[in-house]
Amino acid sequence: MNVDDVIRERIEQARIKAEREKRRREELAEARRIGVARRHAAKLRRLAEAAFDNTVPAASGA
C-alpha cells in the first residue's frame, strides 16, 4: 500500500462519514418538524375545547 492508497482510503472514509452525518441531520430535522406539527395540533385542539367550555379566563385575569 502506498501513500496514494492511504490518502484515497482516508478520503473515502471521510466521504462516508459526511454522508452518514448528513442523513442523521436530515432524519433529526424531519422528526423535529413532525414533533412541532403534532404539538401545534394538540395546542389547537386544547384551545378549541377550552373555547367550547367557556372556562378560559380573561386575559386580564379577572
Features:
62 residues; mainly alpha; 82% helix; 0% strand; rod-shaped
Characterization of the model:
- The protein has 62 residues and is mostly helical.
- It has one domain.
- The longest helix is centred in the middle third of the chain and has 51 residues.
- It is rod-shaped and about 80 Å long.
Q: Strand-residue fraction?
A: under 5%
Number of domains: 1
Low-confidence stretches: none
Name the shape in a single word: rod-shaped
Q: What percent of residues adopt helix (DSSP H or I)? A: over 70%
Topology diagram in text:
Layout (H helix, E strand, L loop, with lengths): L2 H51 L9
Concise synopsis of the structure shown:
With 62 residues, the chain is mainly α. It has one domain (1-54). Helices cover 82% and strands 0% of the residues.
